[in-house]
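In this supplementary section we document a worked example of the pipeline. Step one takes a protein sequence of length 416 as its only input; no multiple sequence alignment statistics are reported here. Step two produces a three-dimensional model, which step three serialises into C-alpha cells for compact storage. The input and output of this example are shown verbatim.
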Amino acid sequence: MALNDATRLFIENHLHDDTRQLALKTLPADIDKTFALNQIEARQIISKKVPSWASNNDLIFPKHLSLEQCSSELTAKYKTTIVEKIIETHCGAPLQPGTDGLPTTFVDLTGGLGIDSYFLSENFQNAYYVENQKELCDLAENNFRVLGRKINVVNTDAESFLENHSCNSCDSWCIFVDPARRDALNRKMVSLHDCSPDVVELQGKMLSVAGHVLIKASPMLDISLICNELKNIKEIHIVSVKNECKETLILLERGFEGKIKFVCVNLRQDEQNPQDAFCCFDDDEKNAAPVFADTIRKYLYEPNSSLMKAGVFRLVSQSFNIDKLHVNSHLYTSDNLIQDFPGRVFEVVAFSNFDKKVKKELLKDIMRASVVTRNFPLSANDLRKNLGLQESDDTFVFGTTMRGDKKVIILCKKHA
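The serialised model returned by step three reads:
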C-alpha cells in the first residue's frame, strides 16, 4: 500500500495531464506506471466529486468503476443532514459538536470507496465500514487513517455482518446501505430485489439490529415499487444535483407505520442558495386539486427533476397557486412571481399555436434558443430542427400542450 518517492512525485507532477498521452511514454523503472496512471485518473475524478479529499496526496484510490459509482461529497453531506435529524430525535436536542451522549454506532454495510462512511460516521461514537472486496478494505484502512477518522474496517458481506450482530438491538444504531445496481453481466437492475445485497430480504434483519436504516437507491427505480417492496418507510428523499436526479434515499424506522414523508431536493454549489426543497406526504398528491390554465400568463414554471421524479404534479399547482397547462404537461403559469419555486422560472415573452406561421411570426427574429419539449409530439432536437434554431442559453423555446390538447410554442427568458 506504500508509495515509493518516485511514483508519488510522478503522480503529483502530472495530476492535470492527459493519461492517454502519459501512457505512451517510457518511464523510469522505479515508477509503477500502471498504478501511477490509475491514481492520476482517479484524482482527476475525485477533485470534482470529493474536493475536500483532492489535496491529500496520501490517499489511494481503486479502479475506475468504483469511482464512477461512488457518492459525491455534496450528496454525502446531504445524507449527514438526515442522520443528524435522527440523532437530534434520539438525543432529544439539537446536536452540539463535542458533546457526550452521541448515538453509539454507525454501520455502512456496502463500504465501497468509503465516502459515505467518512462523512456519515462523524457524529457517532463507533463506526463500521463493511466491504466484501479485500482490495477496497485495504484502501479504506489507509485512507481513513490518513484522513484521521477512526472507523472499523470489516472485510465481509452485509449478510454475515448482520448475522454476527444479530444479538444487538439498539434504537441508537444507524445502518447505511448502498446496494449494487448492476449484476455480474453489467445489466441495470429494475427492482431492489435485484440489487446486491437484497435489501428487501434484509430489511427485517437490519431493523432488528438498528433503529434506523438509510438505503441509497438508484434514481431510476420507480417510487411506487419501492413503497411496495419495503416496510416501515418513514421518509423518501429524492436528491438532484444541479437539476439532475442522482439518488433516492429511503429512511426506514423500526416500527414506523405512519404516512411517508417525501423530500424533493435540488442541491447546488452556491453557498448563498445551496438548495431548493419541497416536502409533502404520500397522500397529498392524490388529494390535491389543481387549477388548469386557459392561457399562458406572465411567468412559466418548470419543477426541478426531483419533483418530476416524485410525480407531485397536482400538488405543485395547489401548493404554489399556479395553473397547470395540461394534465400531462408538467409546466405551470401565473401572473405572480414565486421567488422560492423549486425549479426554473421563466418570463414569458410571447406564445402562439404550433403551426406554419410560428417561425415567421413568433420567432421571426430568433435565430438561437434552448429548446425544451414537455408533452409534445416532437422531441427537443426535432423541434429545434423544425424551427431552424441554433443552441443558446439566453432565450428559451418551449413546445408543449395546453388544455384541450392545443399544441403551443412559448418564447421566454429565464428569470434572474
